[in-house]
Write a structure and sequence with these properties.
Length: 133
């Protein structure tokens, strides 16, 4: 029998919280408003304040700007709870030019350099930079 390694169906399902996280979240939810609830309340308060000021005949621009500045500050803090951050992923293409013949390597590098106005293709492909684009 095979031991160790990845097995189908084994482990916690993706996205499922572990026991301590689930217990902590349940306690916070039962004990009153969560930090996210507080941030959302503050966000809505200042947003409503700015909108009410804008409804006046002569809105006080300083009050509107101050309220929107607070809205933006609170929104950026609340966003961490609501919107997940993108994982840091290296999106640069990885080339193994050693799999090609020498003449094919030269063709690929020449085409990459021609197609990339930033000059990064030559660096990625490992070709000497010529300064020509």
């Amino acid at each position: 029998m095979k031991h160790g390694g990845r097995r189908p169906g084994a482990g916690r399902r993706k996205g499922a919280p572990n026991r301590s996280s689930a217990r902590r979240e349940q306690f916070i939810a039962q004990s009153g408003p969560t930090p996210l609830d507080a941030l959302i309340s503050v966000y809505r308060y200042y947003l409503e304040m700015a909108e009410q000021e804008l409804q006046r005949k002569r809105p006080n621009e300083a009050r509107v700007n101050a309220a929107f500045a607070r809205v933006a500050d609170v929104a950026s803090k609340a966003a961490n709870f609501v919107h997940p951050r993108l994982a840091a992923v290296d999106h640069r293409p990885q080339f193994d030019l050693n799999l090609l013949k020498e003449s094919e390597q030269e063709d690929v590098v020449r085409l990459l350099i021609k197609a990339d106005p930033t000059g990064n293709a030559a660096r990625i492909a490992g070709a000497p930079e010529t300064g020509e684009h």
